[in-house]
Amino acid sequence: MPARFPFRFRGTLVVLALLFALPALRAQTAPAPRVIGFMTDFDVNDDAVGICKAVMFSIAPQARIIDITHQVTPFDIAQAGRFLAGSAPYFPHDAVFVAVIDPTVGSTRKAIIAKSKVGQYFVLPDNGMITQLADRDGLVGAREITSPAWMIGAKLSSTFHGRDIFSPAGAHLARGDDWADAGPELDVAKLVRLKNDSAAIDAGGLHGQVIGTDGPFGNLVTNVPATTFAKLGYTLGDRVPVTIAGIPYVLPFVKTFSDVSLGQGLLYIDSRGRLSVGIDQGNFAEMRHVAPPVPIEIPAKR
User: Quick check: is 292 in a domain?
Assistant: First the structure.
């Protein structure tokens, strides 16, 4: 015969079973923490990046932090905006981005959270860094970070808001806290925006800008989308007259570096869909002494 237990003892077993089951039930019902994309111009020569990650971890220990880069050119808001817009499509649709390129830290500029129509959150200073992403994805709302509960420290530093404001706010979002608690709503139309730097075509041809270089390789990154360049009429294999910073070149338009001889220059469409200039196994920026930003002009095909 099966063993019989007093009713009181059986009740105790039921209670204990429920107590052990509660953590598992909570884990099943609690939202999974969001991924955090982290970008700064801090470099990694000191402890600033590690401190910010420690702050995030203390608030959202289960969140995954992915480093986009910490080598944005210091104070270069436009470059940071390009990196942010370029990386966002490869993150989950509910990801949180903490981006700290903040040359006016401690001033009256706002610390904000912006939410895109994709569903991603961007925790960053209101200095125009959001411009390129907002133009492409659109924004559904923004809030100023003013709640002390979304910051750390009894006294905020005037020079390290990456630690004291942006990192904790990003972690609160990552663990699923309601962003309405961060502070008052802002009009997205009134956020700071950078000047539109899109390339243009007129009777004289294309007028654009070299806006940066491609990592350590020295390829020139331009603000010329492939669709804009296509309007000039060039096709793969054509030799294209190009003027960069006032210096004329004639470069073949090809698909990839191996389509030209070693050391030869080329025009190509890069992985982000922009016209770029390079040298096969060489550094165009260094060899041709190009220091962005500089103009680039290309006439229409004759």
Answer: yes
Which domain CATH number covers 244?
2.40.30.90
Query: Does residue 207 sit in the same domain as residue 293?
Result: yes
Backbone angles phi, psi at 205, to 5 degrees: 115, -155
The boundaries of the domain holding residue 232 are 200-298
SS3 label, residue 165: helix
Please, which residues bridge with residue 210 across strands? Answer: 222, 294
Give the integer Cα–Cα distance in Å for 234 and 236: 7
Please choose, from the candidates 166, 119, 131, the residue with its C-alpha nearest in 3D space to the C-alpha of residue 145. 166
The reply to whether 11 falls in a domain is: no
Enclosing H/E stretch for 98 = strand 96-100
Residues 6+ apart with CB under 8 A from 99: 38, 39, 40, 68, 80, 84, 122, 123, 124, 129, 166
Look at residues 190, 221, 249 and tell me which one is the last residue of a structural domain: 190
Angle at 252 between CA 246 and CA 255, to 5 degrees: 125
- Rounded to an integer, what distance in angstroms lies between the CA atom of residue 292 and that of residue 264? 21
Q: What is the pLDDT of residues 158-197, one digit of tens each?
A: 899 999 999 999 999 999 999 999 999 999 999 999 987 7
* pTM for this predicted structure: 0.84
Predicted confidence (pLDDT) per residue in 216-233, tens digit: 899 999 999 999 999 999
Are 216 and 155 in the same domain?
no
